């Protein structure tokens, strides 16, 4: 669009302000992790690295991190399988209720997390518990997988739409059976979409707190739950600050991976 | 070594490929079986585990809790819903939650539109990728970390207070802080779909509009807006729904503010009234279902 100079500068200014709005709070947390003052008075009176050392020695945080990783891997595994299956069905077949199925996949993230959480909680309490299956890590994985399916589904569906079915037909014409076509043609085409979906699913699960609160059994503490339960304890504030700073810095890793995986600039989004 | 690799392809694979081939040929002829094989597991999960849980939730909303024993009475009654409709507290909280969700959505749309437009149409193509990365990165920084960042910023004597001239002079925690922080949290969910929509809009259309004599405002209304609206609606599903159910941010920066999420949380935890919590949870479900059905025609769901 032919924009006037002033319009361009206005838009540039809006972009800069928006980015400042996004990054200032995050940088404050980073700076504060070196703030020697326990209450984080601003501006910081002195600097220290003591909190980093203390956070590194915190067993609760480490344990919670491990639980989060287990839950994330479990949920990602289930989401990869179910999401791909639905994507294939929706892309390759025209069937009654196809629209409903795609809406059903979106529903768990379209409805507020507290609804998904309380629904699963109610189901576990009134249906699963009498059957002898209590809440634990398993129920967390069930809860997370339910809303992770959609990210794998979206990534795989987009890739299937773009690649079409020509390669598969060519493969069949050349005499390959269904398994060979999948192994040598379909899967390689999908690989990076699957990885991107897995990355997003893991990220969603790793960050989730509301559904986790309602589905975690006693003693199952993921990292967000650990952070939240320590958030209002004044003497834990410095450690929380360092954990927060680490999570901010660590968020560069999935972004880097997602950028390498996705072929379009916006391919890594939900 | 050499002999074994020579041996295997000839004998091994044909023996193995026979049944595989027959199965794949049979599957090729039976599309219905293939479809069933694809859909059984996901539908089992989504219908049984998810919709089933939702159904249990709605059924338990019709139950009550015995005031003396604290045990759930499994007898269907509309008492919970009657309380929600007649008691003013719940109406106020429901309206406040919808107001917060709508406010967050409007703020995010207003911030996201110019940013997404700049990214898609003004920035140089080689800068675009980096701008997308800059918008995506905070999505990976944990939700709690971002809410916590604002707790630090808005704290008594924190940076915002300091900016306004000393402890207690900033806005502090409260309803305003809740809206601000929710808008901050969900902003990328609004920018990204709008950017994706605008990226698909060919520049030639904008040029054609200008060639035909339209000014920027007219071009925006006639060419950009029709493309942007489904994207904004797609983004609004996230900003609206995520705000509607939130109770964590409210606890972190909301002061004494109560939203639907908090009431559900309190009733399921401290009050131990699961049926009433379930009845309260049907409010956001109803609102979101009405919203999803209303926007389905706009094609927004394809943009998610």
TrEMBL record, chain A:
GO terms for cellular component: plasma membrane. CDD domains: TM_PBP2. It is a multi-pass membrane protein. Its main location: membrane. Pfam families: BPD_transp_1. The chain crosses the membrane at residues 9-31, 71-90, 102-124, 136-156, 193-217, 237-257. It is found in: Cell membrane. GO terms for biological process: transmembrane transport. SUPFAM superfamilies: MetI-like. Keywords: Cell membrane, Membrane, Transmembrane, Transmembrane helix, Transport. Residues 65-258 form the ABC transmembrane type-1 domain. Belongs to the binding-protein-dependent transport system permease family. CysTW subfamily. This is ABC transporter permease.
TrEMBL record, chain B:
Its main location: membrane. It is found in: Cell membrane. This is ABC transporter permease. Residues 94-295 form the ABC transmembrane type-1 domain. It comes from the Bacteria. Keywords: Cell membrane, Membrane, Transmembrane, Transmembrane helix, Transport. Gene3D superfamilies: MetI-like (1.10.3720.10). It is a multi-pass membrane protein.
């Amino acid at each position: 669009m032919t924009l006037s100079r002033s319009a361009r500068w206005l838009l540039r200014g809006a972009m800069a302000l928006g980015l400042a709005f996004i990054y200032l709070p995050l940088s404050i947390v980073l700076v504060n992790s070196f703030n020697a003052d326990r209450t984080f008075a601003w501006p910081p009176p002195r600097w220290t690295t003591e909190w980093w050392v203390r956070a590194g020695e915190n067993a609760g945080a480490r344990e919670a991190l491990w639980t989060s990783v287990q839950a994330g891997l479990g949920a990602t595994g289930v989401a990869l399988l179910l999401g791909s299956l639905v994507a294939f069905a929706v892309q390759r077949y025209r069937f009654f209720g196809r629209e409903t199925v795609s809406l059903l996949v979106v529903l768990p993230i379209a409805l507020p997390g507290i609804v998904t959480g309380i629904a699963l909680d109610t189901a576990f309490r009134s249906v699963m518990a009498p059957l002898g299956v209590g809440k634990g890590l398993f129920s967390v994985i069930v809860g997370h997988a339910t809303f992770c399916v959609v990210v794998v589904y979206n990534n795989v569906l987009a890739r299937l739409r773009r690649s079409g079915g020509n390669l598969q037909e060519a493969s069949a014409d050349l005499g390959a059976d269904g398994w060979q076509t999948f192994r040598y043609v379909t899967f390689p085409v999908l690989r990076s979409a699957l990885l991107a979906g897995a990355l997003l699913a893991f990220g969603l699960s790793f960050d989730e707190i509301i559904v986790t609160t309602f589905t975690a059994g006693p003693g199952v503490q993921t990292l967000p739950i650990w952070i939240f339960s320590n958030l209002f304890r004044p003497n834990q504030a410095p450690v929380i600050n360092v954990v927060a700073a680490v999570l901010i810095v660590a968020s560069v890793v999935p972004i880097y991976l997602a950028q390498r995986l996705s072929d379009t600039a916006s391919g890594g989004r939900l | 070594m050499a002999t074994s690799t020579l041996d295997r392809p000839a004998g091994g694979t044909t023996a193995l490929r026979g049944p595989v081939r027959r199965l794949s040929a049979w599957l090729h002829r039976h599309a219905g079986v293939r479809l069933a094989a694809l859909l059984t597991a996901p539908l089992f999960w989504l219908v049984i585990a998810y919709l089933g849980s939702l159904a249990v939730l709605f059924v338990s909303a019709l139950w009550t809790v015995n005031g003396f024993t604290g045990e759930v009475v499994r007898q269907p009654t509309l008492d919970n819903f009657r309380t929600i409709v007649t008691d003013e507290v719940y109406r106020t909280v429901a309206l406040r939650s919808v107001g917060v969700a709508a406010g967050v959505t409007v703020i995010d749309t207003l911030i996201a539109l110019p940013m997404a437009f700049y990214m898609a149409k003004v920035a140089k193509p080689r800068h675009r990728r980096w701008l997308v990365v800059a918008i995506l990165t905070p999505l990976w920084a944990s939700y709690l970390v971002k809410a916590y960042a604002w707790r630090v910023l808005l704290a008594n004597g924190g940076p915002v207070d300091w900016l306004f001239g000393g402890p207690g002079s900033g806005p502090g925690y409260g309803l305003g802080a809740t809206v601000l922080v929710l808008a901050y949290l969900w902003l990328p969910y609004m920018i990204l779909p709008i950017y994706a929509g605008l990226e698909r809009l060919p520049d030639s259309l904008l040029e054609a509009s200008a060639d035909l004599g339209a000014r920027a405002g007219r071009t925006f209304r006639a060419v950009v807006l029709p493309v942007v609206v489904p994207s904004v609606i797609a983004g609004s599903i996230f900003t609206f729904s995520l705000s509607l159910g939130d109770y964590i941010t409210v606890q972190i920066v909301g002061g004494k503010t109560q939203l639907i999420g908090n009431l559900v949380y309190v009733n399921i935890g401290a009050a131990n009234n699961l049926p009433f919590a379930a009845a309260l949870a049907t409010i956001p479900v109803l609102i979101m279902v009405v919203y999803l059905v209303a926007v389905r025609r706009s094609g927004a769901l394809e943009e998610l």
